[in-house]
Amino acid sequence: MSIKNLATVYSAELEGVNAKLIEVEIDINVGIHSFNLVGLADKALNEAKERVNSAIKNSGVKPPNRENRKITINLAPADVKKTGSQYDLAIALGYLLATKQMANFGTSDKIFVGELALDGRLRAVNGALSIAQMASERGFKYVFVPIENANEASAISDIKIIPVKSLSEAIAILDGTKGASSIALPVEKIIGAERAAIPDFSEIKGQHHAKRALMIAAAGGHNVLMSGPPGVGKSFLARALGGILPELETEEAIEVTKIWSAAGLRPNGLIRERPFRAPHQTASTLALVGGGADPKPGEISLAHRGVLFLDEIPEFQKSAVEALRQPMESGFIHLARAKSHFIFPAKFMLVAAMNPCPCGYFGDLEKECKCAAYEVIRYQKKISGPLLDRIDLQIKVGRIKVEELRKGEGEAEQSAAIKRVVERARAIQRERAGKINSEMTSREIQEMARFDRSAEKVLATLDRSRLSPRGYYRLLKVARTIADLEEKEGIGGEHLAEAFSYRLKEEL
Question: DSSP secondary structure string, 440-497?
Fold first, then answer.
């Protein structure tokens, strides 16, 4: 009579930023010892056999390599490529169930993820929040995760997250010899990701025009290009922008945390502050857009719901910069592969800075430019017309006089006060359309523009030959944001005129 035992437990595969349910089937049969892993497993996953053997042995249980049996592990569905080490815990528990070395437990409502160390400890994995969200949507009740992933996964409130330190602890919980302490932290108490210190707007001397443009950008989520000579504070202004952006809403925070976790950054909890990403000029198209053999989010997606700052944008690879165009319009990146496709969220504010020429002093009133005319033109042409057309606010940042720099502290408005105005403007936008102005479609902005008489007059006099249809609707969105900052129901002529002043770019 043959001895045959079978067990099925559940785990998950990360595809892009979303998780997919995976069945881990373990079959134990009489035969010469073998340990086979099937179901399109990659190298890291194939090495799970050695990790599971050692972890089970060092947890005081009989390991697979001491069994003279044929062991087959199947990861289903078989046509989905399996990557990573998050299946270790599920494989180990499934094996112990199949060999009856632990009490039988209900597997249909539980998902197990975690990488095993050789001594049986559990190490953190990527995508814990995505896995918890998928488990909730599929009707599971429990998700067993390494303790380092518990805070992150607990952002999904309608499922019990069981933090586990080791394989032996997981066995004890499932056997009933140890009580399970589920994590259910209130979302408000989960700590966000750490960021570098953000400058306060009151520290920026002068630059009233630039600060006004950044306040408008923050209120409506608009893209900004700052052009000016070196050393005038373009990078400082961009960093200060983070201090006037409102905190992420809970739904937005979950989106952002999923992306960061999938990218391997593993935030300790729910990210509440809006991301600020500033890649170096040497960043490749792949680094910005994302992808690779095992597709991961790039800088564009890591800046989702926050800011992507490109300092000295002409110095980036042209292909990398032009790759921004599609996500700036659609709000996502679609990566197509021969056998699969991935969609990464990418609703970000582009904040770019550049010098007007290679030496940086073209148009400067105090320092002479040493560039030839063709060098200036070639440099400025690195930013294509279609990309410029997608940038709502294009401003010049000039040199500040010494007298202004010597003014005392407290004369400029502080970031906290500006942030409150920005939050009020965004609240108006969400109440009106359910989204911020930059995310509205052309049809929505046309319906919600609400011009008064003065605005109609300004519209009649605008030189629309300078505006593409895209540029025209972006103009309306900026004007709508300016009116929202003043809490005005209708768009006035002064709002349109100010918005149009940011679109006039005869030269950078």
Answer: --HHHHHHH--B-HHHHHHHHHS-GGG--HHHHHHHHHHHHHHHHHTT-SSB-HHHHH
Amino acid at position 143, single letter: V
d(CA 35, CA 371): 69
Lowest pLDDT segment from 3-17, 163-177, 431-445: 3-17
Tokens of 4: 């045959």
> Band of the pLDDT at 135, cuts 50, 70, 90?
very high
- Write out the CATH class of domain 4-185: alpha beta
Q: Is the omega angle on the peptide bond into residue 77 within 30 degrees of 0, that is, cis?
A: yes
CA torsion, points 249, 255, 258, 261, in degrees to nearest 10? Answer: -60
Residues recorded for the chain: 508
Residue 467, both tokens: 């505006």
**Domain at 201-501, CATH class:** alpha beta
Closest CA to 62 of 96, 13, 17: 96
DSSP per residue over 315-342, as a string?
GS-HHHHHTTHHHHHHSEEEEE-SS-EE
Phi, psi dihedrals of residue 363, rounded to the nearest 5°: 85, -5
Residues 221-263 pLDDT 10s: 999 999 999 989 999 999 999 999 999 999 999 999 999 999 9
Cα-Cα-Cα-Cα dihedral of 169, 171, 172, 175, to 10°?
Answer: 160
What amino acid occupies position 369?
C
- C-alpha atoms less than 13 angstroms from C-alpha of 393 in its C-beta half-sphere: 31
Rounded distance between C-alpha atoms, residue 270 and residue 130, angstroms = 12
State the DSSP string of 117-130.
PTTSBEE--S-HHH
Exposure class string for 141-158: b at 16+ Cβ within 10 A, else e: ebbbbbbbbbbbbbbbee
Q: Which string of b and e fits 93-104 if b means at least 16 CB within 10 Å?
A: bbbbbbbeebee
For every residue of 74-86, DSSP letters joined together read: EEESTTS-B-SST
Instruction: Locate CATH 3.40.50.300 in the chain.
Output: 201-501
What is the enclosing helix (H) or strand (E) of 6?
strand 4-15
Q: What ranges make up the beta strands (E) of 140-181?
A: 142-146, 160-164
At 348 the three-state DSSP class reads coil
Question: If you average pLDDT over residues 256-275, what whole number do you get?
Answer: 91
3-state DSSP: the chain helix, strand, coil percent, rounded to 5?
40, 20, 40
Ranges for all domains in the chain classified under CATH 3.30.230.10: 4-185
